[in-house]
Amino acid sequence: MSPKHTHVTIHLEDKNFSFDVDGDKKVLPFEFIKDSCWKKYYVEWLNPFAHREAKYVFNWKQYGNENRACGEQFVKLEQYMPFPGPITPLGYKPWTTLAQWSYIARPFPGTIQTNDVICHCYYPEQFPAFGTLTFEIKGPDPWCTGM
Predict the structure, then answer these.
(1) pLDDT (tens digit, 9 = 90+) per residue, 18-56?
(2) 124, 56 in Cβ contact below 8 A?
């Protein structure tokens, strides 16, 4: 039986993601990538229903410095599905974005930026292993998708 709901909480200060899948809880430490423009935290979750290397990647990333007014944040669920054969066809795309939201905690004054949580895509039929999905970010600028 597929779950009805998955709630992902990203604890920025504790450096982990917690997953609540219909009351079954799991906490995983996140991996970290940072460059001059982005910082990104992510957790990989193997897809038990697909190719052995297939996985879901839950991630949070922020553009710009968190102290700047326009540090836009994103949460995303992606799926990695490598081609099962020995030769990958031209044009095959192993990565798919299944759900994505963004948020700007401190919009830059005088622009069209807002502090609304914006859903860029949400395809729950593509991730039945998780049911409906919500994200909550806990840190200096907390927010949630509330979907």
Answers:
(1) 999 888 999 999 998 988 888 899 999 876 666 678 899
(2) no
